[in-house]
Amino acid sequence: MVCVRFAPSPTGYLHIGNARAALINYLYALRSGGEFILRIDDTDLERSKTEYEKAIFDDLSWLGIKYNQTFHQSARFDRYKEVRDTLIESGRLYPCYETSEELDYKRKRQLAKGHPPIYDRAALNLSNSEIEAFKIEGRTPHWRFKLDHSTITWQDEIRGLVKFDGAQLSDPVLIRGDGIFLYSLCSVIDDIDYKVTHIIRGEDHVTNTATQIQLFKAVNGEKDYPLTFAHTSLLMDEDGDKLSKRLGSLSLGQMRDSGIEPMAIACLMARLGTSLPVEPVLTMQELAAPFDLSIFSRTPPRFSEKELWSLNHKLYQLMPFSQVKQHLAIAGFENFSETHWLAVKDNIEKLSELQPWQDIFFGKIENICNDRDFLQIALELLPEKPWNETTWPTWTQLIKEKTTRKGKELFMPLRQALTAMDHGPEMKTLLPLIGRRTTIARLSVE
């Protein structure tokens, strides 16, 4: 059975790029009838915060992403230590005593000579006395995984055949000098233990995959571990630059507060960078139906907030009122009936934009029309009840015959007096919703 995972670190809030990674994995699992695992990568206990972890769960729930199981890496340290000891015994994990300054100096020297900055494995040649001297000095080792200098290949579901020369890769650090287990080791152990079958992530992990393929084999008792890899192109902004994680406007929490519907994010993130059109749908099941890794392009997709808001608007056109009604109640517009909603839904991108219309239908507005003589005539010609969509054309025809006005000169003063706007839905639709009593009050001149 297909099993995928999403593995955020609770060291910050989820942003739009995280949302895309989570959605791609979730939709793939949904389409395949597989499992979706939420893994909390909290091995860095100092930087991991409860508030960020809570936000991860809240954001995923808001997006409509459901996980089959979840776990914390911080609860699995005993398992990581067990594998660590096995790798040390087999000679695949070895201690290194260089300081960060010494490593930086080595890298600069290599680059200056035109060589790739690959770790030189000097630690493997240390004598016992040299190691003892480092210990007396107070140095604690970081631990590297010893790569086989062979060709590493895999058939990537998006990038096709990928090859790396193991001799051109640095032995990756798996454990820091302070004892903190790093991503690669913990992730590989977890993927094996939880029987993950597909690793779908951004193309910034391609080199990680090359080293992890060997690590999977080492952790799995030198037996190949069957995995499917897929690396998606990273999101760019509208100008073709990398998205900044520091942009608060792109955090899911702030996007939620701004009035974006979660399905607008889902519809955009699931289709960006694919051969499928970006269009609004109302459910994850609809979004998952055509979903497949083969639809992804290697061309970096561009994220546009304008396109996101456009999708938000289109979703409101699709939603049945029974669904909209729940959103209206939460947003404080529970007095909107279906008739009110249908009258104005084409004019909004987010629900907060209903506030002026709530004032127009149920509250007070400021009359922005100064043509008092005209409004007095209009008031005198106001039809009696009942009011419906024929009331507006009947009324304006009477005013036209009385004043000889037509076009904008006829309609604009009435719209301004009744809505305090000079644009909006057709007045034949709005007038019955405003009502005769309110219309009389707004046309009355002092």
Described by strand count, sense and barrel closure, the largest sheet is: 3 strands, parallel
Q: What is the second-level CATH architecture of one domain?
A: Orthogonal Bundle
Helix-residue proportion:
40-55%
The overall average pLDDT, rounded, is 94
Please indicate the percent range of residues in DSSP E strands (runs of 2 or more).
5-15%
**Would you count the extended β strands for me?**
10
The radius of gyration is: 31 Å
Structural class: mainly alpha
SS element count, helices: 19
Order of helices and strands: EHEHEHEHHEEEEHEHEHHHHHHHHHHHH
How far is the N terminus from the C terminus?
Answer: 76 Å
CATH class value of one domain:
Mainly Alpha
Main sheet: which strands, in order across?
Answer: 1-2-3
Spans of at least 5 consecutive residues with low confidence: none
CATH topology of one domain: Arc Repressor Mutant, subunit A
Please state the oligomeric state of the protein chains shown.
single chain
Shape: elongated
